[in-house]
Specification:
Number of strands: 10
Subcellular location: Cell projection, Cilium, Flagellum; Cytoplasm; Membrane
Protein name: START domain-containing protein 10
Oligomer: single chain
Number of helices: 5
Largest sheet: 10 strands, mixed
InterPro entries: STARD10_START, START-like_dom_sf, START_lipid-bd_dom, START_lipid_transfer
Keywords: Acetylation, Cell projection, Cilium, Cytoplasm, Flagellum, Lipid transport, Lipid-binding, Membrane, Phosphoprotein, Transport
Structural class: alpha+beta
Organism: Rhipicephalus microplus
Length: 267
Amino acid sequence: MDVGEVRIADDRDFERLKVLADKHDGWKVEYKKKDTTVWTKSTQQTEFKMIKLHTAYKDVSPPLLFDVVMDPLYRKKWDVYMLESRDIGSLNPNNDVGYYAVRSPPPFRNRDFVLQRSWLQTDKEWLVINHSVFHESAPPKKGFVRAISYLTGLVIQPDSSCGSKLTYVTQCDPKGSLPACFVNKLTQIFAPNMAKKLRKACLEYNEWKKAHQPSYKPWLHPEQMNLPRLDVSRCVSTGHQELQEDILDESLVEEQEICSFEDLDNL
């Protein structure tokens, strides 16, 4: 789907994600350690490269991994990069729109997104995709740079025994004027760290869920979905994608000024 396009995802959208996940032609390996590999690929959409991560969790089942990815309350507990997340509305039980704000390491501006998320569960795999859209209730705001997700997706598959395989693909434009050194850190540090944090979150999820609405899983049970119906006529741009006043020229930041992503773990 294109940026700004709001519709129910169909088989073609999920098939595109699977092709990106499975095919490695034109991809360059940037990181490889044990069960985790990170690739990058240049595209014509933006100067920032597409990123793909593949990892395996021998002690995490696919249904558990899917629950952790989809549970919004639990994400607020384990995702140290998330500043704010709120639902806006749903197209149907498998397609919703929401606002998501993320922390950037100092001295960079924090980023935020308005995203349509779509998911599909089959007999053998679980797929999640999102892309940037617009909504009147979430205009760009001061202190944040409105970033763009052309496509971000997850493919979860069963591995040997009770384990799982995860492939994560993302094509984003953070907007602003981020220097190349920041993007290098994103590729080489953030993606593998995300994989480690996600595994840890999975191992702690069942115990946490016992005390937090254990039977409430609207991503599995459509009858539990209580989001308001999305009014597509309100899914329009409210102005510039970024606020122009007092924007920091991030391209002038020296590499040594950038805090490592590990520092964010303590926030």
